[in-house]
Write the C-alpha cells for this entry.
Amino acid sequence: MRADRLVATLLLMQARGQVTAAELSTELEISVATARRDLEALSAAGIPVYPQPGRGGGWRLLGGGRTDLSGLSSTEAQALFLLAGPAAAVSAEAKSALRKLVRALPDTFRQDAEAAATAVVIDASAWGRSAAPAPTHVDTLQAAIVARRRVEVLYANWDSEPTMRSLAPLGVVEKNGRWYLIAQTHRGQRTYRVDRMSSVVATDDAFERPAGFDLAAAWDAIVSDVEERRGAVTATVLAELHVIPYLRTLFGEHCVVLGSGDPARVTLAAPTLELIARWLAGWAEFVTVESPSELNVELRRIATAVAARHAPA
C-alpha cells in the first residue's frame, strides 16, 4: 500500500542521507515513476523532502542527510499521517509501520499525529455497491517487473473464456481503484486489467526492458487513446438542467454543456451512436435530440423494443 511506501521512503532517507528515484524503485520494488510521484507527494504534503539537482543529486530531508524522523515538526508529522492514514486503513502492515513511527515522535505532538492518521477514511465503493476486493496478483507482477522475468497469466476478456498468455511485464498502474498491467507481447505493447487475471506465475525466463520505456508516459498515451476512442461519435441535445448531473455521470468529460439556459445545449460523445442512445434512453423524456437524426431513430427503436417486451399480456 502507498502508506507503507511513504514511511519506508522516509526511513531510507534517514538511513542513507540521500536517495534517488531509481534507488527507491529498486529497494521498494516499484517503478521509477511511482517512486518519483511518492517523493513529490511527500514534498507537496509539507514534509521537508527536497530534490537536489545536478550530477550526483537526489532527494533528501531538509536539515541534513541523516535527519531523524522524530525531528519532523508537528505540522509536518500531521501532514504525513493525513497523507498515509487513509491507505493505512486497509493495510495491517501499514498500520504497524505507522504505530512504530508514532512512537518515534515527540510526546508533545504525538496525539495530533495519531488524530491525523484517523481523520480520513476512503471508501472506494459507490452507494449500493460492495467494495471490489484488491487484486491478489499485484505483488507478484511488481516483483516480476523488478526482476525482469516473464509471467504466465490466465486472462479472460469480458467476452471470452480465459486463455494462458506469456507476458513481459513493464509496469502496473492503479486508476480509480482498478489495477492495470502494461506488458510487452509478441504483438507489441498491450494493457490488461489485473482483476481479470485468474492466475499469475513468474517464470525464470528473463526479458530486456525496452530502452527508454517510461511508465507514466506510456500510461498517458493509453489514457489519451482510450479517451479519443470514447469520443468517436458526437451528438448534440437539449437537456433540462436537472438531468445534466446524471448525463455527466454517464458520459464523464464527454458531456459538455454549451449554454446556461433551461434546457441547455449539450454535446455528448461515446464510441458508438447506439451507446449514446442507450445511455440517454433512461432520461429521454427530458432530452430533445438536435443532431444527428440517426440518434432519434435509435432512441425510437429502443423505446419500441422496451414497450413490446413489457406490454400487458
Remarks:
- DSSP finds eleven helices and eleven strands in the chain.
- The longest strand covers residues 163-175.
- The radius of gyration is 25 Å.
- The mean pLDDT is 80.
